[in-house]
Amino acid sequence: MKILTFISLISAVAAFDVIREAFRKVDDSKDPCDNFYRHACPIGSDRDLLIETAYADLFFRIKAKSVDAIWNNLEIEKTLMRTPSRELTSTNNFIGELFLAQCEDTHVKHEELLHFLKQIEHYVFKFDGSNCEYEGCLSALASDHNCTRASEKLKTTVVIDFLFLNLSEFWEKKFRIAKYGLDGVNALLDGESKQGVSKVNHLIERMQKKLISWVNETEWAINNGADEAIIEETLQVHHYDNYADSMRKNLQFLMKLEQDYLKCLRDTKREHDFETFCMLMSIFASFENEPDLTFFTFYNAFNAHPKLSFSQLFYDMAENVGESAGVLGSVGFIAGHELSHTLIENANAPQLIPYFSNESMQCIQNQYQKTCDHFVEESCGSADNQIDENGSDMLGLQLAYSLFEEEYQGRMDEEYIRIQNLEEYRSITMEQLFFYSTAFVACSGRSQKQRLGDGHSPWNVRVNAIVQHPGFKKAFNCPANSTMVESFDDQCIIFGKGAPEMRR
Ligand SMILES: *[C@@H]1O[C@H](CO)[C@@H](O)[C@H](O)[C@H]1NC(C)=O
Ligand SMILES: *[C@@H]1O[C@H](CO)[C@@H](O)[C@H](O)[C@H]1NC(C)=O
Ligand SMILES: *[C@@H]1O[C@H](CO)[C@@H](O)[C@H](O)[C@H]1NC(C)=O
Ligand SMILES: *[C@@H]1O[C@H](CO)[C@@H](O)[C@H](O)[C@H]1NC(C)=O
Ligand SMILES: *[C@@H]1O[C@H](CO)[C@@H](O)[C@H](O)[C@H]1NC(C)=O
Ligand SMILES: *[C@@H]1O[C@H](CO)[C@@H](O)[C@H](O)[C@H]1NC(C)=O
Q: What residues does the Peptidase M13 C-terminal domain cover (predicted)?
């Protein structure tokens, strides 16, 4: 179970080949043809995702690079974090009570009260000076001799009413997203995984070409006059790597909040009592604004057609995983999955492309259901499980494999490394490496279940379903009566020669 034959020094600074390291986890007491996912990725091998655990050091280093950066030390965020949201009920109540307290305090001058209302006009209603309109004109309230009445009126006038609990949850998340983005870009600007970014770019371009050539030969697309439209959609997809733009947007987002907050505080006399108020004013002024989530450090990748975004993790893998077959099986599979999102649709209601083959859809669904039936752990399978995710897994792996096939023509069976199984050594071939990498990038040490509302199938199902590819049987020499092979339906060819529908 332990690897002996290669040197495996992990160091926080030297290049770190996460795929090579992951071979330490392989459980040779389980046959790969029996349950490939759990052979490659045993239960308990990690707390959760292997890749995340393996990259804990990198995350820490990335975070450490920017602890002192302004975006990680915002005054407004500190106030937001310490606002006792359970004690403060709704934001309107808070603003009304604060008005009442000032109104009843004989030390507070009329101008101060007026100024307080003007701030609300400015930040909430976006009015300045005397140009307020209708219900946004609050200054008369300062002249009401009945403070209770005026404060009640104010409470019903400020329309953005939130429970503090909701507001802080919602906004802490927005701050976090902007900071992830900035930390990620900061690390890239520092030279971290820069090559990885261009490698991912290149990978996607190659896959795009491949996919287009497949679509061009897909009978169901041609016969329905949808081939050109599908090719057009495919051409639109690109890896979003404009990190300067992302940085500008996130800095703009955060700095506006911080500036408004500090300005509001500066304009009040008793800063201390007004921190929560000014935090609210600043947030209300930016209420519609969103941070930019295109660079991030946590484990994720997504397709916001036509833009594809990837975690820093995958850039690092693209840069530092030594053998190309290992990159293709892992990052290649993830990139293929994201690219495929543009082209996999529910045949009964396609959204982006004009037509999708019903037979392809049924084939994908059948394979996933069959895999679920064979390998269920805690749970799998659900009626509203989306075709998008299941199908993108399958097409994604096919794309990655086809690049592997081109690159390793004639040397798929070459030895990558040897691993020791009890007393014996076992050779891992390049083709096996490809499939192991797919399992490793998807490896969770936890027993898998279908999460409610999540379109993704559980990891064990995802990996065991997509290796229905003929390459897998070949690579591991799986007998026809093995559990893996028995769980395979006919290969689902989604695009390309031999794709179903119109073939009969
Ligand atoms: C002040 O207004 C409140 C609410 O409108 C009312 O209940 C109260 O009687 C008023 N107090 C005086 C002294 O008029
Ligand atoms: C606050 O959150 C709760 C639970 O998530 C939700 O039911 C409620 O509608 C939210 N309230 C507001 C004012 O957004
Ligand atoms: C599609 O195939 C035809 C030949 O069948 C070829 O002329 C055309 O250039 C191809 N288009 C693309 C985008 O590959
Ligand atoms: C796809 O197949 C299912 C089941 O065979 C059928 O109910 C559905 O009408 C088909 N949809 C289309 C668009 O052909
Ligand atoms: C997706 O996969 C699940 C198994 O994880 C299966 O139950 C479901 O039917 C599949 N859905 C589609 C539309 O492929
Ligand atoms: C598969 O078939 C072979 C040869 O017929 C047999 O030796 C083996 O035990 C079978 N394996 C399983 C898992 O049934």
A: 327-488
Quote the number of domains for the chain: 1
90: DSSP letter: B
User: Going by CA atoms, what residue is nearest to atom 14 of ligand 2?
Assistant: 162
Q: Which atom of ligand 5 lies closest to the CA of 457?
A: 5
Q: What is the pLDDT of residues 35-86, one digit of tens each?
A: 999 999 999 999 899 999 999 987 888 788 899 999 999 999 999 998 877 7
Give the domain range for residue 44.
Answer: 36-53+194-240+311-486
Give the residue, by CA position, lying nearest to ligand 5 atom 4: 381
| pLDDT tens profile 366-405 | 999 999 999 999 999 976 778 999 999 999 999 999 999 9
Q: What is the CATH number of the domain that holds 475?
A: 3.40.390.10
Residue 504 has pLDDT above 80, yes or no: no
Neighbour-count burial of 104, counting CB atoms closer than 10 A to its CB (0-12 exposed, 13-18 middle, 19+ buried): exposed
Q: Is the CB of 166 under 6 A from ligand 2?
A: yes
Within a domain: residue 475? yes
Flag whether 48 is in a domain. yes
The model carries a pTM of: 0.84
Burial class (CB in 10 A: 0-12, 13-18, 19+), 503: exposed
CA of 484 to the centre of ligand 6 (A): 13
